[in-house]
Write a sequence for this structure.
């Protein structure tokens, strides 16, 4: 077989090394802002050092009607519901970014750890009752019928939970993964007592998720669907959580679980090799596990490394087995809502896989094309730079970065007058005129990355088009690690 070695990948007309030296973007500024975004998504009692001063305390009675304290955590996007499934995934990704690139974050590291802790403190509350995992707070149907500040919420703060009789393996397992990943982040950066608490809870929650199997789609019904239905099943979350617990504990029981269960999951994982996000963990499992496979020289005994390679080949545009699309401007594009979640999550996986391969002799082959590791770095940089403004519209898709960025994002708190500007209560429909106006949002949700342009690089900057204009925690979470890496690379 003839092997073609592809070694050239251009980033804005420069090699990745030249682009790094040119420092085309201020990745340090983008890193700071991508973390700051999470402060704008906070629910609960805000601390005195809260930096987005237009946001105030909200949802201070969450859980009270059920006799529990479920204050804290994050609103997932532009609404005022706390969906624990995507929140836990965002937490896992934030923690993973800290684990891999925390040393490159400099003065932003404490803020990144604080962003992780804001969620894990809440997830600890959500899993504190034996035999119960709280899966969500807030009636999404009532919430989506209103355009209201989180500080004013008078929609039902319904509590949804999964139990032994009404299980929810995907939400429980993703919480276990988040707690395990966060335990590694805090262990690495000096808070071993908190790390221990997180890891102990992760183990218990995983045991619950695995023992009492079932989908939260069935258990909490309209709370999950159609908002965050689990379409991929819960087996991927169980494998994902076990992989994180193995990395955090080194216990063979978790490794054996992953290896034994991947056999039953092969058809699904092979059919969804490039899927990774709050719903599907397929590609993430393979990249995460590849680190251990490489360190233990297990390449020929497990399928994970070949799966990780297949993931790479399914994404890179120069691969003959590519399965994803790209806009004319070069943005990775997959069908569905909020495309930027795919861009950031898949780019993060490619960069981390490069990190794991760095000192190995493993070679990625996409049929007759050999993929060099610097291609993966170049690809991820091109995606990051597109987000920051290197695109046909010369528009930064991160609010507050650069001079031209989205002004009318689909976000209640950002689009309504702040409590400082208008302390009077705004009721359910009182915010509708602010939703409908074409005026810019009065409050900058700095660091928010929106759903992004369509496949033709068009972006309407329209508040009513949630698909393109709504920011989410799971878009920003993988971006934090990416920005930290390129910040360090551009400073050399």
């Amino acid at each position: 077989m003839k092997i073609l070695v592809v070694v050239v990948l251009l980033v804005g007309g420069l090699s990745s090394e030249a682009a790094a030296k040119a420092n085309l973007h201020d990745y340090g500024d983008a890193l700071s802002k991508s973390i700051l975004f999470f402060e704008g998504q906070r629910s609960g009692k805000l601390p005195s050092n809260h930096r987005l001063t237009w946001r105030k305390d909200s949802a201070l009675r969450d859980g009270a009607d059920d006799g529990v304290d479920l204050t804290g955590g994050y609103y997932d996007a532009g609404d005022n519901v706390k969906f624990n499934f995507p929140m836990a995934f965002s937490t896992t990704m934030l923690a993973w970014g800290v684990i891999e690139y925390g040393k490159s974050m400099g003065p932003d590291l404490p803020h990144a750890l604080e962003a992780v802790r804001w969620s894990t403190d809440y997830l600890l509350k959500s899993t504190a009752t034996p035999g119960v995992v709280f899966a969500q707070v807030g009636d999404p149907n009532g919430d989506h019928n209103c355009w209201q500040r989180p500080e004013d919420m008078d929609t039902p703060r319904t509590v949804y939970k999964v139990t032994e009789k009404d299980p929810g393996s995907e939400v429980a397992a993703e919480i276990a993964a988040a707690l395990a990943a966060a335990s590694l982040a805090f262990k690495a950066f000096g808070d071993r007592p908190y790390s221990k608490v997180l890891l102990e809870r992760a183990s218990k929650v995983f045991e619950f998720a695995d023992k009492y199997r079932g989908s939260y789609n069935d258990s909490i019904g309209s709370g999950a669907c159609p908002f965050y239905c689990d379409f991929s099943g819960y087996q991927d979350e169980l494998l994902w959580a076990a992989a994180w617990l193995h990395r955090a504990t080194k216990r063979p029981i978790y490794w054996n679980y992953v290896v034994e269960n991947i056999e039953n999951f092969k058809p699904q994982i092979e059919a969804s090799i490039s899927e990774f996000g709050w719903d599907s963990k397929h590609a993430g499992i393979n990249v995460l596990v590849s680190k251990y496979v490489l360190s233990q020289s297990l390449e020929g005994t497990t399928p994970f490394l070949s799966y990780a390679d297949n993931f790479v080949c399914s994404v890179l545009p120069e691969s003959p087995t590519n399965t994803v699309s790209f806009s004319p401007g070069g943005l990775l594009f997959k069908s569905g809502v909020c495309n930027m979640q795919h861009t950031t999550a898949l780019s993060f996986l490619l960069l981390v896989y490069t990190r794991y391969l760095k000192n190995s002799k493993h070679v990625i082959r996409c049929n007759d094309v050999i993929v060099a590791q610097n291609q993966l770095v170049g690809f991820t940089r091109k995606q990051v730079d597109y987000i920051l403004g290197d695109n046909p519209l010369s528009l930064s898709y991160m609010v507050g970065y650069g001079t031209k960025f989205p002004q009318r994002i689909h976000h209640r708190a950002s689009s309504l007058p702040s409590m400082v500007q208008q302390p009077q209560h705004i009721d359910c429909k009182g915010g509708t005129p602010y939703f409908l106006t074409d005026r810019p949002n009065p409050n900058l949700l700095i660091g928010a990355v929106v759903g992004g342009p369509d496949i033709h690089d068009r972006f309407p900057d329209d508040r009513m088009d949630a698909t393109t204009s709504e920011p989410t925690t799971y878009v920003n979470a993988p971006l934090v690690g990416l920005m930290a890496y390129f910040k360090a690379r551009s400073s050399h």
Residues 267 and 427 are 49 Å apart (CA to CA). The longest strand covers residues 132-137. Residues 4-490 form a domain with the Glycosyltransferase fold (CATH 1.50.10.10).
